Amino acid sequence: VYSRDELKQYEMAAAEPFRSHAERLRFFIGDVRDLPRLQMAMEGVEVVIHAAALKQVPAAEYNPFEAIKTNVIGGQNVIDAARSTNVKRVVALSTDKAAAPINLYGATKLCSDKLFVAANNYSGSHGVRYSVVRYGNVMGSRGSVIPFFLGQRAAGLPLSITDERMTRFNITLQEGVDFVLESLQRMWGGELFVPRIPSYRITDIAEAIVPGGETKM
What we know:
alpha/beta, four-stranded parallel sheet, 11 strands
């Protein structure tokens, strides 16, 4: 497990089933921007699932080069570290916002997707294969619209909707995990896997959370 978040690593190590398999797990504090640290973490690893990214659209717009350093340069670091340490398979997690992107976050993920697909062209004798999984919004994940709406409801505030025409593709956390594992089994290298998942209107989710409630644009 390689991440910048020491608290989440501590909580994961203390929780089951991770605690019962402590001898099989390694936890590294590090950043995808740090290539030497990535190479150290990947020693002896056969499969890498790359999920690190700056994902908040407004934050990426306000801090554009920080998003580029993590999402693009960090992605290339993952590619290079996997190649130099003889990793066998790498799956990079993308987003539906990378399809015809209109914001910087989507643009950085589109660039990252292309880097991972193209990396198969020069894996050479190392034999590492790279593929991409691109799915939608994970229901209830940190920073997503459902906990945001629930927080506004708890505070007695009207729900904030940017555009009533907005629709979102939706996937549960477990469905996302299962799809990544399935893609790992199926991959040959160079694929961009996209699941068939439902979409909903933003106004429908607002109505489900606060039936007949007030919204603001």
